[in-house]
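Reading a protein record of the kind used here takes little practice once its layout is understood. The fold follows as a row of integers, each naming the local backbone shape at the matching residue. With these conventions in mind, the following record can be read line by line:

_____
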Amino acid sequence: MASPLEQFRIEPIVPITVGEFDLSFTNSSLWMMASVAAVYGFVMAGTMRPAMVPGRLQSLVELAFEFVSDLVRENAGKEAMRYFPAVFSLFMFILAGNTLGMVPGAFTFTSHIIVTFFMAICVWLGVTFLGFWLHGAKFLGFFVPHGAPKIMLPLLVPIEIMSYCVRPISLSVRLFVNMMAGHTMLKVFAGFIIALGIFGVGPLAVTVALTGFEFVVAFLQAYIFTVLTCLYLHDAIHMH
């Protein structure tokens, strides 16, 4: 039986080496491009011929648009709507990557910590730059707890700074762990189906249930990543 971790192996499709750097086009790159193409095709197909009475595809696009715009307004405020395109793109990219990863033979790039950490560090650097751009040096006041006794500030400020700096780690690990764990369990139970033969009805039922659950997790993880991004955006804009 193949290891359940085999599905996470990154394999080059088009080997490219520049000096000591490996810039190969891999299965991970392929499915990232597939996710971008799927999102672009979905949005363009649903908005190419808008109608007063929307069809199914247009309704789905409008539903996604309203869903993310509500997330931005509720968690980051109306002022953050100018950054809606970036948040919407992030949500749809993660959702497409998680969902396409459920296709048999596909590669789930969100199950790799390097991918999720890169997205998280981009969000973190972006909101940090935005905070300083909007508030200048006053943004440093974000790390001073409101109403805290001055005598406690030498202890509280480093804690606040450390808590802020670990945001990319917690944001990336949450997505990576959930996607990797779910796919690993699916592979394990699918292996039992074949190994047990006619007695594999139990593992088959569990696999079907886990598959449905994984689709829910795929959406929830995209949702959680986006909500936290909006909360970080709120901090950068409002400093509280």
